[in-house]
Amino acid sequence: MEKEDLIRKAGNYVFTLFKEKLSKKLVYHNYKHTFEVVKEARQLADDCMLPEDEQEILLLAAWFHDTGYISTYENHEDESIDIATAFLREQQYPEERITQVCRCIMATKQGQITHHLLEDILVDADIANIGKDTFFATAELLRVEWEIYLGRTFTDLEWAQYQLDFLLSVSFRTQPAQARFSKQLSKNIQAQRNHLQELSKKKKKKEKKNRENLAQPKRGIETMFRSTYDTHISLSAIADNKANMMISLNAIIMSIIITYLGTKSSIIGAEFTRNPILMIPVGILLATTLASVISAIISAQPEVTSFRLRPNKLTSRRINLLFFGNFTKVPLEDFQNGMHDIMRDKNALYNNMITDIYYLGDVLKNKYRLLRISYTIFMIGIILTVVSFVIAIAR
């Protein structure tokens, strides 16, 4: 009776401790897991026909074996031993038995060597889950815990392989545990193998799909690239038309001015001779039209974005083998090999098209910048010419 009272006190103490201090993020190592370990330990102790005093030590260790999780995740066994020792001393539990409880708790640490039947029973109770049909569900809870507390992330395939390796590496240490759990453990191992094979087949199928000989872009991606190319080409044509318009207009104005200034015997020439101040607006107009036409010509002239290209750098993200400014700098054989690589690799194809669009945009940026300068100079020139002409006439 006294033994049951102490074990009940320990259970109540652990329940309150977990309720108040255990993180809710511990979805596996929580009170539910501890309660199941105690339950399995009690059953295995009965099967092994342990004396009452040894059962007491075993169950106390089962209650306290995971209490260290309230303060630390790794090496929690040491904290569990401290918590159990403090509680048992408060209950005036014999020191030699406290030492045995602590040894049982430490035996649950992974890779630890056991030296006593009590330790073997507690270890079997702690891993009893691998011999139950709930193994796969609870294993996912452990996976979540490791991601949160240890930063260990797994793909589904990696986790399935890890779980299979674990199932094959562990074994129950006591005869009662082997009798109770071995059958289901064998089923779990086979089920895990089947699951791993399914995931491996899916992965291989996905990899095979990605390793197509020719790139197969989706319709939406094709539409995006086609639309982007059309837009850039249209904008380039508009810029060239605007530049040609400015070149023609300014060329006509310059021709008229030069012709009139060269006609010394004409009425206009005589008028300029009698009023030299009129040369100021004419000079302003001539200078601004010249600057404007130069900017327009620079904007309209062909521009090729290029840089030094080395054959061994054909796969660089800056290289565009679809653009003549790049591929004409490499030998034909290297160009052919590069094109074959592009046709085999969808990502390489997309990369070249993206690079092409980028440099088309870079050319367009320069075109429209020069056009803006040309139009601005022309507008300012017209304004200054009119203002200076009005001032000259008024004088």
What do you see in this structure?
The chain is built from 15 helices and no strands. It is mainly α and 395 residues long. The mean pLDDT is 82. 74% of the residues lie in helices and 0% in strands. 26% of the residues are buried. The chain has 3 domains: 126 residues, Orthogonal Bundle (Hypothetical protein af1432); 84 residues, no CATH class; 176 residues. Helix 2 packs across helix 6. Its main location: membrane. Pfam families: HD (PF01966), PycTM (PF18967). It is found in: Cell membrane.
Task: Describe the structure using short key phrases.
15 helices; Hypothetical protein af1432
Strands, helices and their partners?
Blueprint: H1 2-21, H2 31-47, H3 52-64, H4 76-90, H5 95-107, H6 117-126, H7 135-149, H8 156-169, H9 175-210, H10 219-262, H11 267-274, H12 279-300, H13 324-327, H14 332-344, H15 346-394
Domain HD/PDEase: 26-254
Protein name: HD domain-containing protein
Pfam family, one: HD
